[in-house]
Amino acid sequence: MAGTPTYATPPGFLGVSRRDAAGGIAIAGIPMDIGTTNRAGTRDGPRAIRAASRMLVDGAHPGSWVDPATLPLADVGDFALALGDIPGSLALIEAQAAQVEHLVTLGGEHGVTLPLLRALSKRLGAPLGLLVFDAHVDTWADNFGQAYAHGSVFYHAIREGLVDPRRMIQLGIRSPVQRDVWDWTLGQGVTVVTAQDFHESGPAAVAARVRQVLGAAPCYLSFDIDALDPAFAPGTGTPEIGGLASWQAQAVLRRLGGLDFRGMDVVEVAPAYDQGEITALAAAAIVWEYLCRD
Known about the structure:
By secondary structure, this protein is of the alpha/beta class. It contains nine helices and eight strands. The chain has an eight-stranded parallel β-sheet with strand order 2-1-3-8-7-4-5-6, sandwiched between helices. α1 links the parallel β1 and β2. α7 packs across α8.
């Protein structure tokens, strides 16, 4: 009675049973939510995303015709954290990420992106280009006095030289933000496509802008699930109305083939607020789109 349940898959992402990440792409969960500022619960995100991924195991991508089952995927489980200790957890995450060549991360709060960028930038020896889907700029110097929280991740990434802000583009931004934070972000050279601009321009034009900003050098994808409108992703801690539809995000990702992505994360899935797994499934599908890009 301890086997895989009927009509289900093994517990790894996409049912992957391989655990050795050497020479391939590693899927890792980071169940951290001690730096959230509204509703907590993203520590359960990795488990929910893995469970929802069972919907994506029965064939190839209908656009690229890549079948993830043919890829060198490994699910290495969840990273270790320092309970209640944000700086300690970030250090542990960076050390574990440094051991993986190509890492796809299931969050967890958006704060986990900072140590992932630290590890990858050190490995490459250069700043990265960065594509961010998000409702929030996440360039606050601190969140309610906490320097390393989920709303300050890109402030630190820019200040530490982990990313090249001139090769950084954010899609779906629409939350309240202080004018000085907004001006600082643009002043660093970051390209911001608000949700309204996205809706008015359309996915094809937005994807062309992404390609122009990122260029041919190595880059990274960070997808905060709250980039999607709460109608499509209610299971998150900081929902903002007026966001992207699932198909819009999908349409952009499908137009980014050939870019030199070296890793990605999908973050801020909080299953306690989800309905019918739609948020977890959206997150799993975003990872699937990334894996299946041509």
